[in-house]
Amino acid sequence: MNDGPRSPRGVPLSAPPVLASPRAALEALLQRVRQALRARYYSGRTEKAYLGWIRRYVEFYRCRDVASMGSAEVMRYLSSLAVVGKVAASTQNQAFSALLFLYREVLGLKVDGLEDVVRSKRPERLPLVLSRSEVAAVLAHLRGTPWLMASLLYGAGLRLLECARLRVKDVDFERNEITVRDGKGRKDRVTVLPASLRGPLQQQLSAAERLYQADLNAGAAGVSMPDALARKYPNAERQWAWQWVFPAGRLLVDADGRRRRHHLHESVLQREVAIAVRAAGLLKPATCHTFRHSFATHLLEGGYDIRTIQELLGHSDVSTTMIYTHVLNRGGRGVQSPLDTQPISDSSRSSYPNILATDPPKVREMFSVYN
């Protein structure tokens, strides 16, 4: 009977250990990170971002074992993002948080001495805000569900995903309230339901309910449920109260093989708003989030106090909300330009456009100074 290879002394030789390839080791590491994130109830978007940064970090060092690397490697990578990649400060901070989570929470290792990392400078930018007439112009170029969703972004100060993920039970017509569940930072909050949207919202819910009944008759699975509520309340996923206010147009097959109707994808509204902004002739690069900025700004202009607006927006710190106070000043910080106090003759006022229209050589002479 052959028991396998033996040494010259007749001692059986054990088979050499099978070493995982660097790629396989990376995937195993990412799976550990994924499990750690989900055990701590991190959002799906945070999970995707962290896994992406950890993958790029490991590949930056050609798939070396992360346990053999430490502060020096983290510092070099983060500095490279700022110096070579020229990433924004928020991007570098996200990478920093991902690597900190990897070492502290997954590997149980300390990563100290990161004070010397070259940090991207965070720019101090004011939020882009539309005037009331500009908001009206954009909304006038939207129709149907995109119009209603964009109106809620502006009228209730909702974020894009908060609007897309609204459930029937979170709209309270009696109290004129919308409850935002599991918003940014996993916080709930209550905001205003615009009175002018009561009718359109009720029509939207009637259409969604017809779709819901058709799905029930077709035997489709219910909506996805947050956290472990599907196990705690196994029938809740098929109850009307838990359905999406803005359901998608078609059923999709989940990872578990069940056909479900998800909420309308946020990219649909992003695309429609971008088209509406161009159609309205706006030069400002407005997006869906611009409606939220405009909501806060116009409330401040209307005399509402900063604490009320903080609650409606769901900001943890009032300093975040204070950025909107820039609008309380008139344009140009309320300063009158000294030029506006000087008399300008009608001939001087009209000379420049006349030159542009009638004397091309003179125009070339004027601009040659700057070439």
- The CATH architecture of the domain at 22-116 can be given as Orthogonal Bundle
Q: Profile the largest sheet.
A: 3 strands, antiparallel
Low-confidence stretches: none
Shape: globular
User: What is the overall number of helices?
Assistant: 15
End-to-end gap: 93 Å
Average pLDDT taken over every residue:
83
CATH homologous superfamily title of the domain at 22-116? Tyrosine recombinase, N-terminal domain
SSE arrangement, N to C? HHHHHHHEEEHHEEHHHHHH
**Which fold does the CATH topology of the domain at 22-116 refer to?**
DNA polymerase, domain 1
What fraction of residues sit in β-strands? under 5%
**Number of E-type strands:** 5
CATH class of the domain at 22-116: Mainly Alpha
What class, by secondary structure content?
A: mainly alpha
Helix share bin: 40-55%
The radius of gyration is 29 Å
Strand order in the largest sheet: 1-2-3
Write a structural description.
There is one protein chain. The protein has 371 residues and is mainly alpha-helical. It has a domain of 95 residues: DNA polymerase, domain 1, CATH 1.10.150. Helix content is 48%, strand content 4%. The protein contains 15 helices and five strands. The strands form two sheets. It has a three-stranded antiparallel β-sheet with strand order 1-2-3. Strands 4-5 form a two-stranded antiparallel sheet. Helix 3 runs antiparallel to helix 4 and helix 5 crosses helix 10. The radius of gyration is 29 Å and the shape is globular.
Helices and strands, with pairings:
Blueprint: H1 22-39, H2 44-60, H3 71-83, H4 89-106, H5 132-140, H6 144-156, H7 160-164, E1 171-172, E2 177-180, E3 189-192, H8 198-218, H9 229-232, E4 252-253, E5 259-260, H10 266-279, H11 288-301, H12 306-313, H13 318-321, H14 346-358, H15 360-367
Antiparallel strand pairs: 1-2, 2-3, 4-5
Helix pairs in contact: 1-2, 2-4, 3-4, 5-10, 6-11
